[in-house]
């Protein structure tokens, strides 16, 4: 039988063993963190160099890898991107911070400080501001697998030198989500409390809007395959399943769903279902936001009493597009703009 004096010895040995294991784990964690930090810094440098070779200059001054010991990420005092080969896009913003948990380095979250100034060959200079802008991205073997961007109190203005510019619109909240699924690309967007605030804007209620769709064969867009391509080049011959495009303004609302595709000339063909409550107000809003669809919106509002049916307090109409020409049954509606 062991003497009682052996018990303290065993306890001391046990404590020493635990301490040794803890020290080894801490050393291993520290080593892993600094290894990953070096890899991250090297990958960022390589990505910036590769972007420059493709005609895009990225500036991230005072870059620092941080987060030891349980997180890892990088931050910069500001961020600027200049693309010169295609659309001549220039973007600049405030500080950027990203981080990932050390045990899940493939999922990155980040924040960006405003304002964001954006301009391009086909864009007027725009000024974006917000109270909070957060993003998350998940990477897997094929590259970017999923990303989300969420903003609170976003505001858009036409930029002006030395000032805040001319306000265009604002909202209470926005979200954009995209993910790979079986080689396809799922996209969901949401806007709550959107308002037009430019000079002379119509006095409309705040708008809630959302889209939910799948683009066939477009999963590689998340890996950069869409870079530099026009809308026509991206969508030619590609099938799109629109589960919902919903607009809501108080009691007025419109929801569009259907399956469609575009030909090589950017013309749309497909079948749609459109459900509308208070079509005149919806048509007025579409006319302001999308002037190219003014005649189409007015024609749909006129055709609803003749070609529509009532369902759940809304008028539902079946629409068909062929080579860019829209019709409701035997009633022609008009020509939809082609992709450019």
From TrEMBL:
Protein name (Swiss-Prot/TrEMBL): DUF2125 domain-containing protein
Organism: Jiella sonneratiae
InterPro entries linked to this entry: DUF2125
Membrane-spanning residues: 15-36
Keyword line: Membrane, Transmembrane, Transmembrane helix
